[in-house]
Amino acid sequence: MSIIATNFKPFFIVFMKMSVTSKDLGSIGLVLSGVMIMSLIGIQCSNHKAEMTETPTRGNIRIVADESFQPIVDAEIGTFTSLYKYAHITPTYVPEKELIAAFLNDSVKVVVSAWEPTDVQKELLRNTQIIVRTTTVAYDAIALVLNKENKDSLLTYQNVNDIFTGKMSDWKDINPVSKFGKIMMVFDNDKSANIRYFKEIFKLGDQLPPNFYSVKSNAQVVDYVSKNKGAIGMVSVNWICDTHDSTSVSYTDKIKMAAVSQQILSPGSYFLPVQGSIYDKSYPFTRNIYTVSRESFIGLGFGFISWFTSEQGQRIVLKSGLVPATMPIRLIELKK
Description:
- The protein is of the alpha/beta class and 336 residues long.
- Helix content is 33%, strand content 23%.
Protein backbone atom coordinates (compact mmCIF):
# COMPACT_ATOMS: atom_id res chain seq x y z
CA MET A 1 0.00 0.00 0.00
CA SER A 2 1.29 3.45 -0.89
CA ILE A 3 0.53 6.69 0.90
CA ILE A 4 1.34 10.22 -0.23
CA ALA A 5 2.54 12.65 2.40
CA THR A 6 2.97 16.30 1.54
CA ASN A 7 5.41 18.93 2.60
CA PHE A 8 3.84 22.22 1.55
CA LYS A 9 5.71 25.50 1.44
CA PRO A 10 4.13 28.97 1.44
CA PHE A 11 3.19 30.26 -1.98
CA PHE A 12 3.01 33.98 -2.64
CA ILE A 13 1.53 35.85 -5.59
CA VAL A 14 2.33 39.50 -6.21
CA PHE A 15 0.06 41.49 -8.49
CA MET A 16 1.42 44.65 -10.03
CA LYS A 17 -0.71 47.63 -11.01
CA MET A 18 -0.21 49.35 -14.32
CA SER A 19 -0.89 53.00 -15.04
CA VAL A 20 -1.48 54.59 -18.41
CA THR A 21 -0.48 58.17 -19.32
CA SER A 22 -1.63 60.06 -22.41
CA LYS A 23 0.66 62.03 -24.69
CA ASP A 24 0.32 65.73 -25.23
CA LEU A 25 -1.87 65.94 -28.31
CA GLY A 26 -0.91 69.53 -29.09
CA SER A 27 -3.41 72.24 -29.86
CA ILE A 28 -5.10 72.89 -33.17
CA GLY A 29 -7.62 75.19 -31.58
CA LEU A 30 -9.23 75.40 -28.20
CA VAL A 31 -12.58 73.87 -29.14
CA LEU A 32 -11.19 71.24 -31.52
CA SER A 33 -8.50 70.08 -29.09
CA GLY A 34 -11.06 69.81 -26.32
CA VAL A 35 -13.27 67.60 -28.47
CA MET A 36 -10.34 65.41 -29.49
CA ILE A 37 -9.15 64.96 -25.92
CA MET A 38 -12.62 64.00 -24.67
CA SER A 39 -12.98 61.55 -27.57
CA LEU A 40 -9.65 59.88 -26.76
CA ILE A 41 -10.56 59.60 -23.10
CA GLY A 42 -13.85 58.00 -24.08
CA ILE A 43 -12.11 55.49 -26.35
CA GLN A 44 -9.57 54.58 -23.65
CA CYS A 45 -12.30 54.08 -21.07
CA SER A 46 -14.24 51.87 -23.47
CA ASN A 47 -11.22 49.74 -24.42
CA HIS A 48 -10.10 49.18 -20.82
CA LYS A 49 -13.46 48.93 -19.09
CA ALA A 50 -13.19 45.15 -18.62
CA GLU A 51 -9.61 45.41 -17.35
CA MET A 52 -10.56 48.21 -14.92
CA THR A 53 -13.51 46.27 -13.44
CA GLU A 54 -11.88 42.83 -13.38
CA THR A 55 -8.94 41.88 -11.19
CA PRO A 56 -7.44 38.52 -10.13
CA THR A 57 -9.92 38.42 -7.21
CA ARG A 58 -12.88 40.36 -8.58
CA GLY A 59 -15.13 40.08 -11.60
CA ASN A 60 -17.52 37.78 -13.40
CA ILE A 61 -16.22 35.14 -15.85
CA ARG A 62 -17.25 31.86 -17.40
CA ILE A 63 -14.84 28.95 -17.72
CA VAL A 64 -15.31 25.67 -19.56
CA ALA A 65 -14.13 22.40 -18.03
CA ASP A 66 -14.10 18.79 -19.13
CA GLU A 67 -16.99 16.91 -17.54
CA SER A 68 -14.48 14.33 -16.27
CA PHE A 69 -13.05 16.93 -13.88
CA GLN A 70 -16.29 18.45 -12.55
CA PRO A 71 -15.76 17.36 -8.91
CA ILE A 72 -12.30 18.96 -8.56
CA VAL A 73 -13.26 22.10 -10.51
CA ASP A 74 -16.40 22.57 -8.42
CA ALA A 75 -14.34 22.19 -5.23
CA GLU A 76 -11.71 24.72 -6.36
CA ILE A 77 -14.27 27.29 -7.52
CA GLY A 78 -16.37 26.86 -4.38
CA THR A 79 -13.48 27.60 -2.03
CA PHE A 80 -12.00 30.39 -4.18
CA THR A 81 -15.29 32.29 -4.49
CA SER A 82 -16.08 31.83 -0.79
CA LEU A 83 -12.81 33.57 0.07
CA TYR A 84 -13.19 36.31 -2.56
CA LYS A 85 -16.83 37.40 -2.40
CA TYR A 86 -16.55 39.68 -5.44
CA ALA A 87 -15.25 36.84 -7.64
CA HIS A 88 -17.96 35.10 -9.66
CA ILE A 89 -16.93 32.12 -11.77
CA THR A 90 -19.54 30.17 -13.73
CA PRO A 91 -18.33 26.76 -14.94
CA THR A 92 -19.75 24.95 -17.95
CA TYR A 93 -19.00 21.23 -18.24
CA VAL A 94 -18.76 19.72 -21.72
CA PRO A 95 -16.99 16.86 -23.55
CA GLU A 96 -13.40 17.53 -24.57
CA LYS A 97 -14.03 18.11 -28.29
CA GLU A 98 -16.60 20.81 -27.53
CA LEU A 99 -14.23 22.40 -25.02
CA ILE A 100 -11.41 22.60 -27.58
CA ALA A 101 -13.70 24.15 -30.19
CA ALA A 102 -14.94 26.77 -27.70
CA PHE A 103 -11.39 27.73 -26.75
CA LEU A 104 -10.01 27.93 -30.29
CA ASN A 105 -13.05 29.92 -31.45
CA ASP A 106 -12.60 32.45 -28.60
CA SER A 107 -15.90 31.54 -26.92
CA VAL A 108 -14.11 31.16 -23.59
CA LYS A 109 -10.82 32.45 -22.15
CA VAL A 110 -9.98 29.68 -19.64
CA VAL A 111 -10.51 25.91 -19.81
CA VAL A 112 -9.70 22.97 -17.51
CA SER A 113 -8.93 19.80 -19.41
CA ALA A 114 -6.59 16.90 -20.14
CA TRP A 115 -6.03 18.62 -23.50
CA GLU A 116 -2.84 20.57 -24.13
CA PRO A 117 -2.78 22.76 -27.26
CA THR A 118 -0.46 21.46 -29.98
CA ASP A 119 2.37 23.54 -31.39
CA VAL A 120 0.31 24.08 -34.55
CA GLN A 121 -2.68 25.33 -32.56
CA LYS A 122 -0.46 27.65 -30.51
CA GLU A 123 1.10 29.06 -33.67
CA LEU A 124 -2.30 29.69 -35.26
CA LEU A 125 -3.41 31.60 -32.17
CA ARG A 126 -0.10 33.45 -31.99
CA ASN A 127 -0.70 34.68 -35.53
CA THR A 128 -3.85 36.38 -34.24
CA GLN A 129 -1.92 38.00 -31.37
CA ILE A 130 -3.15 35.44 -28.81
CA ILE A 131 -0.64 33.95 -26.38
CA VAL A 132 -1.72 30.62 -24.87
CA ARG A 133 -0.59 29.77 -21.33
CA THR A 134 -0.81 26.15 -20.22
CA THR A 135 -0.40 25.17 -16.55
CA THR A 136 -0.36 21.64 -15.11
CA VAL A 137 -2.53 21.74 -11.97
CA ALA A 138 -2.94 18.05 -11.06
CA TYR A 139 -2.27 14.45 -12.06
CA ASP A 140 -5.22 12.16 -12.73
CA ALA A 141 -5.86 8.58 -13.83
CA ILE A 142 -8.63 6.80 -15.69
CA ALA A 143 -9.95 4.00 -13.54
CA LEU A 144 -11.40 0.81 -15.01
CA VAL A 145 -14.38 0.06 -12.77
CA LEU A 146 -16.20 -3.23 -12.32
CA ASN A 147 -19.44 -4.54 -10.88
CA LYS A 148 -19.20 -5.40 -7.18
CA GLU A 149 -19.90 -9.08 -7.91
CA ASN A 150 -17.09 -9.44 -10.43
CA LYS A 151 -14.20 -11.30 -8.80
CA ASP A 152 -11.87 -10.87 -11.79
CA SER A 153 -10.48 -7.51 -10.67
CA LEU A 154 -6.87 -8.12 -11.79
CA LEU A 155 -6.25 -7.21 -15.42
CA THR A 156 -2.96 -7.34 -17.27
CA TYR A 157 -2.00 -4.45 -19.53
CA GLN A 158 -2.26 -6.90 -22.42
CA ASN A 159 -5.82 -7.83 -21.36
CA VAL A 160 -6.84 -4.18 -21.62
CA ASN A 161 -5.06 -3.81 -24.95
CA ASP A 162 -6.82 -6.87 -26.35
CA ILE A 163 -10.23 -5.64 -25.17
CA PHE A 164 -9.76 -2.26 -26.86
CA THR A 165 -8.47 -3.77 -30.09
CA GLY A 166 -11.32 -6.30 -30.25
CA LYS A 167 -9.16 -9.40 -29.72
CA MET A 168 -10.89 -10.17 -26.41
CA SER A 169 -14.64 -9.74 -25.90
CA ASP A 170 -15.76 -12.35 -23.36
CA TRP A 171 -14.96 -12.77 -19.67
CA LYS A 172 -14.00 -16.39 -20.36
CA ASP A 173 -11.01 -14.99 -22.29
CA ILE A 174 -9.78 -13.58 -18.97
CA ASN A 175 -11.07 -16.32 -16.66
CA PRO A 176 -12.24 -19.60 -18.26
CA VAL A 177 -14.72 -20.26 -15.43
CA SER A 178 -16.37 -16.83 -15.54
CA LYS A 179 -20.14 -16.80 -16.10
CA PHE A 180 -20.46 -13.08 -16.89
CA GLY A 181 -20.40 -13.58 -20.65
CA LYS A 182 -19.79 -10.67 -23.00
CA ILE A 183 -17.53 -7.85 -21.82
CA MET A 184 -19.42 -4.55 -22.12
CA MET A 185 -17.07 -1.55 -22.26
CA VAL A 186 -18.78 1.67 -21.18
CA PHE A 187 -17.49 5.23 -21.44
CA ASP A 188 -18.92 8.67 -20.87
CA ASN A 189 -19.17 10.26 -24.32
CA ASP A 190 -18.01 9.83 -27.91
CA LYS A 191 -16.33 13.26 -27.67
CA SER A 192 -14.74 12.72 -24.26
CA ALA A 193 -11.13 12.86 -23.12
CA ASN A 194 -11.48 9.40 -21.56
CA ILE A 195 -12.08 7.51 -24.80
CA ARG A 196 -9.66 9.76 -26.70
CA TYR A 197 -6.92 8.77 -24.22
CA PHE A 198 -7.33 5.04 -24.88
CA LYS A 199 -7.65 5.54 -28.63
CA GLU A 200 -4.27 7.26 -28.61
CA ILE A 201 -2.33 4.84 -26.40
CA PHE A 202 -3.67 1.75 -28.19
CA LYS A 203 -3.40 3.43 -31.62
CA LEU A 204 -7.06 2.95 -32.49
CA GLY A 205 -8.99 4.70 -35.22
CA ASP A 206 -12.45 6.16 -34.82
CA GLN A 207 -14.03 2.73 -35.11
CA LEU A 208 -14.39 0.93 -31.76
CA PRO A 209 -15.28 -2.76 -31.27
CA PRO A 210 -19.05 -3.50 -31.24
CA ASN A 211 -19.08 -4.18 -27.47
CA PHE A 212 -18.23 -0.52 -26.65
CA TYR A 213 -21.06 1.74 -25.51
CA SER A 214 -21.22 5.43 -24.67
CA VAL A 215 -23.56 7.05 -22.16
CA LYS A 216 -23.62 10.75 -21.22
CA SER A 217 -21.40 11.23 -18.16
CA ASN A 218 -18.98 9.63 -15.71
CA ALA A 219 -21.86 9.34 -13.24
CA GLN A 220 -23.89 7.33 -15.77
CA VAL A 221 -20.89 5.05 -16.36
CA VAL A 222 -20.83 4.21 -12.64
CA ASP A 223 -24.58 3.61 -12.62
CA TYR A 224 -24.42 1.32 -15.68
CA VAL A 225 -21.56 -0.77 -14.27
CA SER A 226 -23.33 -1.13 -10.91
CA LYS A 227 -26.32 -2.73 -12.71
CA ASN A 228 -24.47 -4.92 -15.24
CA LYS A 229 -22.17 -7.68 -13.99
CA GLY A 230 -20.22 -8.02 -17.24
CA ALA A 231 -19.46 -4.32 -17.68
CA ILE A 232 -16.16 -2.44 -17.45
CA GLY A 233 -16.42 1.32 -17.15
CA MET A 234 -13.90 4.14 -17.78
CA VAL A 235 -14.06 6.88 -15.14
CA SER A 236 -11.78 9.70 -14.02
CA VAL A 237 -10.65 8.86 -10.49
CA ASN A 238 -11.68 12.29 -9.20
CA TRP A 239 -15.28 11.05 -9.42
CA ILE A 240 -14.70 8.08 -7.12
CA CYS A 241 -11.67 8.70 -4.88
CA ASP A 242 -12.65 11.68 -2.69
CA THR A 243 -13.39 10.06 0.67
CA HIS A 244 -14.58 13.43 2.03
CA ASP A 245 -17.28 13.86 -0.61
CA SER A 246 -20.60 12.10 -0.08
CA THR A 247 -21.31 11.79 -3.81
CA SER A 248 -17.91 10.23 -4.48
CA VAL A 249 -18.38 7.80 -1.58
CA SER A 250 -21.81 6.81 -2.89
CA TYR A 251 -20.28 5.99 -6.29
CA THR A 252 -17.50 3.95 -4.67
CA ASP A 253 -20.10 1.91 -2.79
CA LYS A 254 -21.64 0.89 -6.13
CA ILE A 255 -18.55 -0.38 -7.96
CA LYS A 256 -14.93 -1.43 -7.45
CA MET A 257 -11.73 -0.54 -9.27
CA ALA A 258 -9.67 -2.98 -11.31
CA ALA A 259 -5.95 -3.28 -10.61
CA VAL A 260 -3.86 -3.27 -13.81
CA SER A 261 -0.32 -4.47 -14.48
CA GLN A 262 2.21 -2.30 -16.27
CA GLN A 263 3.21 -2.95 -19.84
CA ILE A 264 6.92 -3.27 -19.06
CA LEU A 265 6.81 -4.93 -15.62
CA SER A 266 6.00 -8.43 -14.49
CA PRO A 267 2.35 -9.33 -15.21
CA GLY A 268 2.20 -10.47 -11.58
CA SER A 269 2.38 -6.89 -10.29
CA TYR A 270 -0.96 -5.05 -10.31
CA PHE A 271 -1.66 -1.44 -9.39
CA LEU A 272 -4.81 0.39 -8.37
CA PRO A 273 -5.37 3.99 -9.53
CA VAL A 274 -4.66 5.48 -6.10
CA GLN A 275 -2.47 8.49 -5.33
CA GLY A 276 0.79 6.62 -4.80
CA SER A 277 0.43 4.69 -8.07
CA ILE A 278 -0.62 7.82 -9.97
CA TYR A 279 2.35 9.78 -8.61
CA ASP A 280 5.01 7.25 -9.63
CA LYS A 281 3.02 6.16 -12.73
CA SER A 282 3.04 2.50 -11.73
CA TYR A 283 -0.66 2.53 -12.63
CA PRO A 284 -0.43 2.65 -16.43
CA PHE A 285 -3.34 4.96 -17.34
CA THR A 286 -2.37 8.34 -15.86
CA ARG A 287 -2.63 11.83 -17.36
CA ASN A 288 -2.20 15.52 -16.58
CA ILE A 289 -4.92 18.04 -15.83
CA TYR A 290 -4.24 21.46 -17.34
CA THR A 291 -5.64 24.94 -17.15
CA VAL A 292 -5.30 26.66 -20.53
CA SER A 293 -5.72 30.44 -20.76
CA ARG A 294 -5.89 32.98 -23.55
CA GLU A 295 -6.54 36.00 -21.34
CA SER A 296 -4.93 39.16 -22.67
CA PHE A 297 -4.65 40.82 -19.25
CA ILE A 298 -4.25 39.83 -15.61
CA GLY A 299 -7.88 39.15 -14.78
CA LEU A 300 -10.01 36.78 -12.75
CA GLY A 301 -8.97 33.80 -14.88
CA PHE A 302 -5.35 34.45 -13.95
CA GLY A 303 -6.33 34.72 -10.29
CA PHE A 304 -8.22 31.41 -10.35
CA ILE A 305 -5.33 29.57 -12.01
CA SER A 306 -2.90 31.05 -9.47
CA TRP A 307 -5.23 29.87 -6.69
CA PHE A 308 -5.47 26.37 -8.22
CA THR A 309 -1.66 26.04 -8.13
CA SER A 310 -1.25 27.64 -4.68
CA GLU A 311 -0.84 25.75 -1.41
CA GLN A 312 -4.55 25.95 -0.58
CA GLY A 313 -5.62 24.95 -4.08
CA GLN A 314 -3.23 22.01 -4.13
CA ARG A 315 -4.48 20.80 -0.76
CA ILE A 316 -7.93 20.53 -2.33
CA VAL A 317 -6.37 18.49 -5.17
CA LEU A 318 -4.79 16.17 -2.60
CA LYS A 319 -8.05 15.73 -0.68
CA SER A 320 -9.93 14.88 -3.88
CA GLY A 321 -7.80 11.78 -4.49
CA LEU A 322 -5.71 13.35 -7.25
CA VAL A 323 -2.01 14.21 -7.08
CA PRO A 324 -0.88 17.86 -6.71
CA ALA A 325 1.28 19.14 -9.57
CA THR A 326 2.94 22.23 -8.08
CA MET A 327 3.69 21.25 -4.50
CA PRO A 328 6.49 19.05 -3.13
CA ILE A 329 5.45 15.42 -2.71
CA ARG A 330 7.03 12.73 -0.60
CA LEU A 331 6.07 9.11 -1.27
CA ILE A 332 6.12 6.69 1.67
CA GLU A 333 5.65 2.97 1.11
CA LEU A 334 4.31 0.90 3.97
CA LYS A 335 4.90 -2.84 3.84
CA LYS A 336 2.89 -5.29 5.87
